[in-house]
Amino acid sequence: MVVYSFYIFDRHxxxxxxxLWARHDRPLSSGGSAARPISGSSVASNGPAPxxxxxxARPARLSAxxxxxLIFGTIFSLRNMVRKLGGPDDSFISxxxxxxxxxxxxxxxxxxxxxxxxxxxxxxxxxxxxxYVNLYVEFVVKNPLSPVEHPGGEGVANELFELALDQFVxxxx
Length: 173
Fold this sequence. Notes:
Distance between the termini: 6 Å
Strand content: 15-25%
Shape: globular
Structural class: alpha+beta
Radius of gyration: 21 Å
Largest sheet: 5 strands, antiparallel
Strand order of the largest sheet: 2-1-5-4-3
Number of strands: 5
Number of helices: 5
């Protein structure tokens, strides 16, 4: 089992904690046409290289903030779809793609815990519940120095929580 990343979202849809353990990169597809390498002499003879505009300026990898926004949008949409199709008693637990499996746990106070793992991992809902009860509540909620609300996405800045989470996830592996 491989854990790729872990996110905590507050009730205001802000990512208040994210952690990456392993990044799963997939090779880029060629799109059906082979790209011909351009040598320095052919660029000089054909003039300057064309400016590709925004396509060239776009980063190859999303920022951590963009990843968090995409993940929250995905769980928000899937959770709403499950509630509309299955009724109020059904809940969204996880979904799997060809590359990863997303596990979801929501607390009664609308704190959302999300973990991305490899596709062979079994249900991690109990693990996310244990992270909430044993780590988040103990090290963040009960900490008098930790803010109750996280305005503007101010994250969970607690070294004990981070160390305990790292040990917990490595112990589950």
